[in-house]
Structure formats: structure tokens, C-alpha cells
Design a protein that fits this description.
The structure is a single chain. This protein is of the alpha+beta class and about 210 residues long. It has one domain (about 25-195). Helices cover about 25% and strands about 30% of the residues. A seven-stranded antiparallel β-sheet has the order 6-3-4-5-1-8-9. The chain has a two-stranded antiparallel sheet with strand order 2-7. This is Lipoprotein. Keywords: Signal. It comes from Methylosinus sporium.
């Protein structure tokens, strides 16, 4: 659906999915959106998740590697921190969009401190293309966007995902009722995406029981 490198925060939100299931209206509106050249400052992704998951908006990193064909040993590596990115105006708009879940939304975006490095990577990729070089890349999510307070269930794990690429397009439904645990899902990627929540310190747990 999107073209070029790096794929940045959007691909992390689509951690186990492709374009299958994306509404046709959204695909049409994003038909010319290219993350390799787009301004990523307004790019935000919102997820509505099961209630046994707890958002961890300060722990996730997107690690992007990219290289010219035949030069994998000289690959560039870019680490992008993800942070909570909700704006005041996002809430009412997202609340009005289609949903299959009743839980709250969490919005992620690239950390502002990493925008200059992202733009530099985009510019380098553009120079490669202009020179006729073929580029390759990979992307990994490090740290997870959620932690889980329970074991991953045997059945479906449903998410609603929305994307905001720029102010002109606004918020668009990306995946509604997406089952991240459908048959054939990568169990390791799913566990990495939602590791167990850290246990509360003993003194905090004791106070909670009182």
C-alpha cells in the first residue's frame, strides 16, 4: 500500500498485517501516499485494543535498516522512538469512526527528536533512487506498543487501527476488527508486540491489597 523506505511508525501499527482488510475507500485515499518522501511529522496511528492490554507508549522503538543492493554490509540503521501522540482534536474525531471495540484509544507517533534523522534517511534514499541504485530494507518493532496483564488467549485478539497521514486526509480507518491472532499468525511477533506487564514492586503491591 505504501512505497519506499523507511516505513516508520505506520508499519509498526500494522505489526502483523498487510493491506488485506483495509477499506477500499482508505486504500484509494492513500494511493499516492509515499512514506519515503512524506512529511512524517503529522503521521499518527491510533489503536483500540482488548482491555487486557495496557498501552506502553514510551517503550516502543521502530528499528529501520536500509541499504543499496550489493552493499548490505554498509547498511544504515535508524532507531525511531514512538511516543503518545494524541492531539486535543483527535478524540472527538476518532470517537466518531467505526469501531468493533469499546475500549479506549492510544495514539502513537514518531518522537519529535527523531524527525531530523528520519528526514535525513528519506533524503539519502531519494539520492539513491536518483542515481539508479536499488534499495532494500527491513523494519522491526522493539519494545512493543502494549503489555499484557494476562496470557494471550487461544482465540481472536481484535484491534481497530486508524491512521492520520496529514491534515488534508485526516483520520482514516485502516483495519477494523482486525484479528492479530488468526490462524497462521506469527506467535513470536505477537508476543513481542505485547510482552507481559512488569510486576508491581512488592511495597506497591502490599499497599494495593490494604
Amino acid at each position: 500500500m505504501t512505497r519506499g523506505l523507511p516505513s516508520l511508525a505506520l508499519a509498526s501499527a500494522l505489526f502483523l498485517s498487510a493491506c488485506n482488510g483495509v477499506p477500499l475507500s482508505t486504500q484509494w485515499k492513500l494511493r499516492s501516499f509515499d512514506l519515503s518522501t512524506a512529511d512524517v511529522a503529522p503521521l499518527r496511528v491510533a489503536l483500540r485494543a482488548p482491555d487486557w492490554l495496557e498501552p506502553t507508549p514510551t517503550s516502543a522503538r521502530v528499528v529501520v535498516a536500509y541499504w543499496r543492493e550489493g552493499e548490505e554490509a554498509a547498511k544504515r540503521v535508524l532507531t525511531i522512538r514512538l511516543v503518545s501522540g494524541a492531539r486535543a482534536e483527535d478524540g472527538p474525531i476518532l470517537a466518531g469512526l467505526e469501531s468493533t471495540l469499546s475500549g479506549g484509544l492510544v495514539v502513537f507517533e514518531a518522537d519529535r527528536r527523531d524527525l531530523a534523522a528520519i528526514r535525513a534517511a528519506q533524503e539519502e534514499g531519494m539520492r539513491w533512487r536518483e542515481s539508479g541504485a536499488k534499495a532494500h530494507g527491513s523494519l522491526e518493532l522493539d519494545g512493543g506498543l502494549f503489555c499484557r496483564r494476562a496470557e494471550i488467549p487461544a482465540g481472536a485478539v481484535i484491534f481497530d487501527v486508524y491512521v492520520h497521514t496529514d491534515d488534508a486526509l485526516g483520520w482514516l480507518p485502516l483495519l477494523i476488527g482486525h484479528d492479530a491472532h488468526r490462524p497462521g499468525a506469527d506467535e513470536k511477533k505477537l508476543a513481542d508486540f505485547m510482552p507481559p506487564c512488569a510486576a508491581a514492586p512488592a511495597n506497591v503491591a502490599a499497599k494495593t491489597r490494604r
